[in-house]
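Sample A.
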Amino acid sequence: MAKNRKPKKKRNNLKIIFILLILVVIVIFSYTIFNKFIVPIWERYTEKPVITEEAPYKEEEIEEVQPVPLEDVVEVNLYFSDSQAMYLMAEKRKISQTPSLARQAVIELIKGPESSDFYPTIPEETQVNEVYIVDDIAYIDLSEEIFKNHPGGSSGELMTVYSIVNTLTEIPPIKGVQILVGGNEMNSLVGHIDISMPLLRDEDWIKPEN
């Protein structure tokens, strides 16, 4: 009877070990399934959403741009004749500051005076062909109307020549003026004043202030 107890006890031990192995396998399998599937799903639903604060819309500040004047203006003295054609008188005029201020000044002279106290010195049909400055000398190339439409007379010719010379020598760096006609040098306009060379400013022909 004693011999039959030992094998029975051994079978019971094997059965317990087998059951324990099965339990271990189940635990490991369950743990793997839990970490692989259950935990990610749980974290997905329990994770707090990240809230980003949206900055309120702010309109871009536009710097105010100051208007730039299209043209600068400069005041010049234009010399016109008095009623007796004896003296020149200065009329102040604001004109555009162009790359060739000398050219614009001559154009304004041709337009004539704005005041009724002054008299024109250049025939209004005259055209300015070219103006260039070399070594402080301004060369003024005018059309043939400067002499063809000129009223004549020594006083009138003198007023024409020195209205141009005295007007332009107030514009830096001009110190002298030579008048050309049709691109050519002339001995005179109407036979009295030598214009074959540059002429300097002569204030003796400007009417003295009272």
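Sample B, a different protein:
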Amino acid sequence: MGRPPRIDREAIADAVLEIGLSQSSMKAVAEHLGVSTPALYHHVKNRKELLLVAAERSMAQMRLPEDRGQHWSEWLREWGRYSRNAFIEEPEVFGQYLSGAVSWERVVEVMDSVVRILTRQGFTPVAAMRAWDAVGRFAVGSAVESIRLRSATESGRPQVAEWHRVLAQRSPDDLSGARSVVDVLPKDLEAEFEDELATLLAGIAARRGEPWEPVVTTGAGDGALTQGLAAG
């Protein structure tokens, strides 16, 4: 019969990520690993812990942008793009992240690297931490919005159609503010993200006493907001 496969938490996490968090159960993961379900329970207590182990593994694999000597705004822009896309591509992992899947050991290690990289470009340690936090929170918020709108579209209730449905049910004189923006709701969320990220980075530059225009025009998107800021 041979010796049964040896498993550990790393192998379990990889199995869950290969199957997909939404499709993973104790039984499915055990079968994927070639072990019995009772054997899997020796390593994780339940499905909740199963997903947590996978999320920890996925988050640990996220890497800071390489420090190539690029301007601090480009380094932060790279991180914002990377983290937003990572969460959008793995919404189940994102859910576990919100539940505290990232260990404090990992948080401290990341912040140490962030402070060392940004202080080389004149940030104080506190300013480095705040700039990093601002970009990270913005990326998380943008990911949440993208996941929510994608889910609405997949369920047959896209945002624009729902807005028009609500407005059609109300008096033409009602909800005038919403009516004024319904036709300009963002259709390209990635371009919208780039525009708003450029605004955030420009604000950080302005507070540092640096010219903010190069931050907006270098490496930013082509959206109306970015163009308007650059034009003054």
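Observation for Sample B: The chain has a mean pLDDT of 85.
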